[in-house]
Amino acid sequence: MSSSFGTDFRVTTFGESHCFGVGAIVDGVPAGLALTEEDLQPQLDRRRPGQSKVTTDRKEGDVVKILSGTENGLTLGTPIGLLVHNRDQRPGDYKEMSNVPRPSHADFTYQMKYGIRASSGGGRSSARETIARVAAGAIAEKILVERFGIEIVSWVSAAGDITAPDPDVLTISREQVDGNQVRCSDQAASEKMMAAIVAARDGQDSIGGVVSCVCRNVPAGLGEPVFDKLEAKLAHAMMSIPATKGFEIGSGFAGTELLGSQHNDPFVQKGERLGTMTNHSGGIQGGISNGEPLVFRIAFKPPATIGKAQQTATFEGDDAVLEAKGRHDPCVVPRAVPIVEGMAALVVLDLAMRQAGRSL
Questions:
Q1: Residue range 203-218: average pLDDT?
Q2: Nearest Cα to Cα of residue 350 among 224, 211, 220
Q3: How do 74-75 and 10-14 pair as beta strands?
Q4: Mean pLDDT (whole number) for 267-282
Q5: N or C end of the chain, less CB within 10 A?
Q6: What domains, with CATH codes, occur in the chain?
């Protein structure tokens, strides 16, 4: 199993949804960086369960502890150990599902691959694993802000069949995104999304959605063609998040409907640098950042675990009806926002460090 991500800035995560805790080992953090738990906790608070009526009611504080790699609030240049305890485990909720693989969940595939699996909560396939990504991503983001001035903001752009108008990616802020429980930048759309999510929850069902992201002030030159192109690394990172089903950057699939003359991004002088008039490329050309904002979107499927009765089969192939118990999000996208930001930070910092190494 591959539980590590990154090259120069490398993160290894550990833990299952109902074990003692989850965490990460972060290698490549430079020495002398001011770092405490207070730098990491805000993003974990945005990801944690039990925030609102549109999230799971599992009660977890998700308080992070730095176990190693710092002294007197400064990093030592050695691996950073991070741990978040699981406090509200209820493995008994999954007892009736031990012999019935949940439709569209990872129960069946993990069992087929390893011959064994964590019997409660999905184990490593659970979104609980993403706590470690968010904590590690918060470290990466702190470095990006302080050393490069890079800003990363994600927001919910669709839930079910409701799509919000595109915001101004140059000005959208996390304060604006967090202005409602759905984390949608448009208030009118957020109210419709909230109603759709609540309706799915009340019907013991779930809906999917789309999270959009912008990375601002990314310098030109990041990306390692041909196999480690910037968009390829972003796609790798985003598609490793649980429940993801699609990734597109810039114009995405809609760009296929344009002529080349419409889709091309003409160059223009922007102050002291050369930039582009439009950004259909999403800030990347030839796998390398061009200095424009990185703009991309990630599709999330409806959560697989639902309370509504489903006709399915046991591992032995016998007919069964499954009414899943446990506590699960009716829609994952509101809590996916900081996960997307964290994974984007890991990608951009790793490639920034690789680019900086070229000048040594």
A1: 98
A2: 224
A3: unpaired
A4: 97
A5: C
A6: 4-359 (3.60.150.10)
| CA quadruple 353, 224, 231, 274: dihedral sign | positive
The pair of structure tokens assigned to 47 is 């990801």
Distances (CA, A) of 358 to 144, 352, 354: 18, 10, 7
Give residue 120's pLDDT band: very low, low, confident or very high (50, 70, 90): confident
As a whole number, the mean pLDDT across the chain is 93
Letter for the amino acid at 34?
A
Q: Are 207 and 302 in contact (CB under 8 A)?
A: yes
Residues 93-116 pLDDT 10s: 556 678 999 999 999 999 999 999
> Is residue 240 a contact partner of residue 5, using CB atoms and an 8 Å limit?
yes
- Is 282 within 8 Å of 298 (Cβ atoms)? no
Measure the CA angle with vertex 336, ends 334 and 341; round to 5°.
120
Residue 155's alpha-carbon distances to 58, 69, 159, 297, in angstroms, are: 23, 32, 11, 10
End-to-end Cα separation, the chain, in angstroms:
34
What local confidence, expressed as pLDDT, does residue 17 receive? 87
Single out the residue of 354, 353, 345 nearest to residue 133, CA to CA: 345
Residue with tokens 């504080």: 61
HSE-CB of 319 using CA atoms within 13 angstroms: 1
Structure tokens at 217: 């002030």
> What pLDDT score does 47 carry?
94
Nearest-5° angle of CA 274, CA 275, CA 280? 155
pTM of the model: 0.95
82: tokens are 């991070």
